[in-house]
Amino acid sequence: ATEAMVRAMEAAIINGTGTGQMTGVTVDTRVPADNVITLTAKEITSWAAWKKKVFAKMKKAYRTGEFTMAQSTFDAYIDGMVDANGQPIGRVNYGIDGAETYRFGGKNIETVEEDLIPFYDDAGANDVIAIFCNWSDYAINSNLQMKTVKWEDHDTNEIKNKCILIADGKLVDPNGVLIIKKAGE
Questions:
Q1: DSSP three-state, residue 55
Q2: Which tens digits make up the pLDDT trace of 39-76?
Q3: CA angle 63–66–72, rounded 5-degree value
Q4: CA distances from 92 to 71, 103, 132, 142 (A)
Q5: Model confidence over 72-123: pLDDT tens digits?
Q6: Structural contact between residues 9 and 45, judged by C-beta atoms closer than 8 angstroms
Q7: Looking at residue 177, what DSSP letter applies?
Q8: Does the pTM exceed 0.70?
Q9: DSSP annotation of 154
């Protein structure tokens, strides 16, 4: 039950409508229009395009954030980004301990499942494919009181559990958020 609640909260923090649930970062109308960036299929593989269209939009006061994107988008486009000679950009992404390092342009990357943020190839025009933000700028309001009810359904002979947690949330400061979308082509 706890895992399901955390998963529901993650989904609401990213895509929540704000009606009966948290306001998701991707739908918060207070994020400045200039902070919504589109990348074409050619641009998502281009270091120069990311630097010009995404990194250049990061205001100095908000540069401590991190990227959030689907694991598949990271693997296919960020981790696989190469220069004109086909060589990987930047440094090797495997540390001395052999573990993957999820970083891009000096920023950490938090990867998520594709049901939260779609893979670039599967995303439709204007779908969000990545977010850049400082997650400490998102506030959750809750009394942290989880209520659990257990009962037996005599029609199906099943024991059922219902857990409820009241929670709300939204961005405290939307000005440092960058929403990266797939361009319509």
A1: helix
A2: 999 999 999 999 999 999 999 999 999 999 999 999 89
A3: 145
A4: 18, 11, 22, 42
A5: 999 899 987 887 787 777 555 566 666 777 888 889 999 999 999 999 999 9
A6: no
A7: -
A8: yes
A9: T
Neighbours of 163 (CB within 10 A): 13
Q: Say whether pLDDT at 149 is over 80.
A: yes
What integer best gives the mean pLDDT of the chain? Answer: 90
- Residues in contact with 161: Cβ distance below 8 Å, sequence separation at least 6, in sequence order: 1, 148, 149, 150
Q: Is 152 left (phi over 0), alpha (psi -120 to 50) or beta?
A: beta
Strands 158-171 and 107-112, how do they pair? unpaired
The structure tokens listed for 167 are 């929670």
18 phi-psi bin (left φ>0, alpha ψ -120 to 50, beta other): left
Q: Is the dihedral of CA 88, 93, 95, 100 positive or negative?
A: negative
**167-178 mean pLDDT:** 95
The type of residue at 117 is I
Q: In which residue are the tokens 């309001």 written?
A: 141
Closest to 174 in 3D by CA, of 8, 36, 17: 36
Collapsing DSSP states into helix, strand and coil, what is residue 6? helix
